[in-house]
TrEMBL record, chains A, B:
Keywords: Acyltransferase, Amino-acid biosynthesis, Cytoplasm, Signal, Transferase. HAMAP family: MetX_acyltransf. Gene3D superfamilies: 1.10.1740.110, alpha/beta hydrolase. Its EC number is 2.3.1.-. It comes from Pseudidiomarina salinarum. This is Probable acyltransferase. One of its GO terms (molecular function) is homoserine O-acetyltransferase activity. Residues 1-17 form the signal peptide. One of its GO terms (biological process) is homoserine metabolic process. One of its GO terms (cellular component) is cytoplasm.
Amino acid sequence: MKNLLLSIGLISGYLLAAPVQADMLVEKQTFTTENFATVSGEVIPVVNVGWESYGQLNEAKDNVILITHYFSGNSHAAGKYTADDAMPGYWNSIIGPGKAIDTDKYFVISSDTLVNAFPNDPNVITTGPISINPATGEPYGLDFPVVTIRDFVNVQRELLSSLGINKLHAVAGASMGSLQAIEWAAAYPDQVERMISVIGAGAMDAWTIMALEHWARPIKADPNWNQGDYYEGVAPLEGITSTLAMITQEAMHPVIMNMQAPQQQTLPADGLASVTNNLPAVDYLFGAAASRAPLADANHLLYLVRANQLFVAGHQEDLASGLQRIKAKTLFLPASNDLLLQPYLAKQTVELLEAQGKDPIYEEIDGIWGHLDGIFSIQTKAETIKAFLAH
Amino acid sequence: MKNLLLSIGLISGYLLAAPVQADMLVEKQTFTTENFATVSGEVIPVVNVGWESYGQLNEAKDNVILITHYFSGNSHAAGKYTADDAMPGYWNSIIGPGKAIDTDKYFVISSDTLVNAFPNDPNVITTGPISINPATGEPYGLDFPVVTIRDFVNVQRELLSSLGINKLHAVAGASMGSLQAIEWAAAYPDQVERMISVIGAGAMDAWTIMALEHWARPIKADPNWNQGDYYEGVAPLEGITSTLAMITQEAMHPVIMNMQAPQQQTLPADGLASVTNNLPAVDYLFGAAASRAPLADANHLLYLVRANQLFVAGHQEDLASGLQRIKAKTLFLPASNDLLLQPYLAKQTVELLEAQGKDPIYEEIDGIWGHLDGIFSIQTKAETIKAFLAH
């Protein structure tokens, strides 16, 4: 259970304890912007998001690397909040002094997205359906506008602008973070010099749109969801638990899951007595998910699913047209054993870029984690990333 | 939609229309046995299952090949019920006169399992929670005993015995059918000469036990399920629809799914307006599942999930001990692109058999269907199967 909790913790924004030496201490800060106009044509009166940074902004403000987070993550990409934190940020193995993303050289900044999955996590600052709608004094619920990956990017752009930053040396992200990274490059080509897509895609295909819908169904099916209006009642924790368990399962390859989960005895008496009794492997997965569920918000999960389902880089008529806009150097790092965003997705994008005469770099991450190799095995690509950033 | 309906139809027991010439006409028959003792130690007063056969039983009754069906399939493995049926049985490409499983030589027989997923399909005859409990005159519901893959095998064994058949030239099955096939070889080693496991496994691992649980959760979460007591009320069709959609998605590789499903327009207005509006790819998948849902039974799906979750060939203390019992020649045909029962499962079983000095044959099926290559691409292994049966 402990390892799986760590895994679920990980895909919820924390990381396995790594050998600790001189971990950076970091502080969560809040960025606020007003009258934020969404892609869907609405205006959010007040947007708050959390952010962190590692390293120093130089005088020219041209040493900036933006890190964009994955579906169930947050801005805690590196370092620790206090020296005795059990775990540092999720990409601590590649972000820090002398590391692949070298904080002695670069000012590395990372922000929480809109509609973050875990708004009840004390380390997350986000704005979404759970936030108070100033017009009513109540949580927005489903009155919150649908947001897109471009909206996440636009909030980050305002954050950077507030710091006087107009250009990114690089933007890098894993999974949903990779969607934001490539969206940055396609939406604001003159502001992005390098783009690193880890376990990512240039657009959602039908299979992945459907796969994401399975994450939404358990929430919508939970009577406590109540069409999104549950903030004065009971949260739909059963639905959230199913959703989180599904995400964990799809993010982990069988090899690592079978190494961690309890092995089943032949014909366990409980399992043979009734279909309503759970098996040990099931308790292991769903127990860990249930323990994280109260930190999540059901509507936020639905909004995140939708933001991902709608994704096509650049918002042009098709992916090729969106990619046509990109001027950045690009690096794609899918994971060979990924069962969720399989390498074919990154390959398709790379082939389109190549057909446009561009020169994307493509390397696969090896590992036994599956999708989570983009987090747990990222250090195997440290040299590739370092060289790409220096080039 | 049409192709996906065919696919869902397929994994529910039918098959794509193949070039038709001299399709065998077949007839569903019913086998009844009384006081059937289950592995779980209970007794089912009356068991009815449907069965079909192709070819002629010889006088020595030693030319028998048993076909065991997959999770959402039934006994309709080959031929047609009437000449104008749209589709023949699911393995019609390899079962018939002169085909890999040659009905000019072999008497091929196939039966519906206990707790078949689609008891409301007029072509399915099965016994399970939806059946009338003679003790009460009402459907069993959750009073029906939990059954195992061994129980499926034991019903088939009684059916064969009623025909005077004591030995199988071979047993062959895909997916859940492969579990039955290997269970036959491990449970009754003196009765099975050859075993063909297609897209199969020797035992369930923790990852697959969890994956199966995701199929059960939507049903248990549907208020209409009512702890299994819904036969006088409204069936939990929402839950069943989620389950069937998940099965279809996992059985199909992204390549084939993306070829069939509607492509998404950039920023579709409906999807951008509300998270409660479905996207076209989602309507495609869930619409097809909803159209099949009334033929399924929720409790039967839960019992099938449990039968699969409990599976370990031979019911010994571990898989190796179970496999130790096998005397049959064995052939394993996993599908290279299978995302549900991936080739590592068949490989593990093959390696255990080899370590015991046995000589299993292992070949992978290539194709773009994923798990369903075990059905749709099985004809690519026709020569392998033919040679294996002749050996």
